[in-house]
Specification:
Radius of gyration: 21 Å
Number of strands: 8
Structural class: mainly beta
Low-confidence stretches: 5-27
Strand order of the largest sheet: 1-2-3-4-5-6-7-8
Mean pLDDT: 87
Order of helices and strands: HEEEEEEEE
Helix content: 10-25%
Distance between the termini: 69 Å
Largest sheet: 8 strands, antiparallel, barrel
Strand content: over 45%
Oligomer: single chain
Number of helices: 1
Amino acid sequence: MGDILALMRALTLIAASLTLIPCAVAQTPSAETITPPADQKPILTVLGRGAQVYTCQRISGSWQWTLTAPDAILYDSDSVKVGTHTAGPTWTYKDSSSVKGEAIQRSPAPEPGAIPWLLLRATTHTGDGLFSRIESITRTQTHGGVASTTGCDAQHANTTSRIPYTATYTFYTSKP
């Protein structure tokens, strides 16, 4: 009888645990939640490593760190520098082509203290290289980069804070 009760308790715990799985999955961003249009295919994935730069400003009566710009180096899968990510937001490739993007979709990062995952639409292109073809960009697998919630006050007005971060950027196009 004791074995049967132990088995019933174990099954009850397992069943209760399984009811929590859909909640956990629903809160975790994935590539499916940050998806470019179906006709666009990935042509480059890079690791961005650098800082999110914030400036201490008074906004609507309260002091807060506001995003000034990203400042990151882009690396390919062999850890070779292939470009930069700067204000705009703008990505510049090693062939001097660049693309500026505008966020159109956002999803909280699964890691606390990490900047959100984004889907961006390309708005402006410069040059004739690889990035001249980009139509969408995703930012996923983020680590770090969130502004501090302290240290911004009248004595620190207009000071900057560089918060280290990494992210995976994937560039998409439907163009040949």
